[in-house]
Amino acid sequence: MKKNKYEGRVRRWLIEIVVFVVAIFAIFTVIGHFLIRPVGSELSNKNLKAALTQKRLNYVAIGDSLTEGIGDQTNQGGFVPLLANTIGEISDVNVVSQNFGVAGNTSTQIYKRMTKEKKIQTAIKKADVITITVGGNDVMKVIRTQLMNLTERSFDKPAQAYQKQLTEIFDFIRKHNPDAQVYVLGIYNPFYLNFPDITEMQDVIDRWNQATQEMVAQQKKMYFVPINDLLYQGVDGSRGVTSSDGDIQTITNDALFEEDHFHPNNIGYQIMSDAVAEAYKEHHNEK
């Protein structure tokens, strides 16, 4: 009987000792976790703290295929993510971007999406920076519908209708957000590659951009970003690149997507991003 009682005490002591050792080990493990940091952990913690305290900037991209990023072989969204990264570097902010670009959209279709889609309206309300690509498909629509009888005057009435629609787009943005900075990209001329017989197209594009620029200038915190000369002339600054095969000469453009000779390629989108970034550098501190 005494032996069993003695064995029971020994067993309890052993259990108590094991529990005590485990508890001590756990305590030192926790202390070591906080006092002994792995190499580089302090830097990681600082980066995490910086990320959590860094100011957020909401960037909203609205427009057509240039905003969607058609021709971008990385499928990341054309100039939009490039510009978002650059804005973050310029202003030391955490840029959160939303891309509402839809290929083929005319100014009318862009405006309809803005007025009907609540997601776009919510994004506009919260935006700090907005970019708009619009107008290229309006020009293309004139070419397609009047190709057989196309002249410079074919663009007169469509240009007036476009300007009216653009005013509605601007008014809608300002109704929902009077403070965001808005960067409106001009259109460029890839048409000489697909329609070489329409030699007056550059004059049409120039007038179209001039009208857009004048409209943008009437708005507060809106800025026109010309890109025609940057893309139309190719990367090397000439009127595209001419290659010869016997008696046949072919004009290509090394800033445009090879498959359609219409949309920018990766280099072209970088050029667009740089152009908007330069405008942002100039105006982002304006009140």
UniProtKB/TrEMBL annotation:
Domain SGNH hydrolase-type esterase intervals: 61-271
Record's keyword annotation contains Membrane: yes
Protein name (Swiss-Prot/TrEMBL): SGNH/GDSL hydrolase family protein
Gene3D superfamilies: SGNH hydrolase
GO MF term set: phosphatidylcholine lysophospholipase activity
Organism: Pseudolactococcus laudensis
Keywords, ordered alphabetically: Hydrolase, Membrane, Transmembrane, Transmembrane helix
Pfam families per the UniProt record, alphabetical: Lipase_GDSL_2
Superkingdom of the organism of origin: Bacteria
Regions crossing the membrane: 12-36
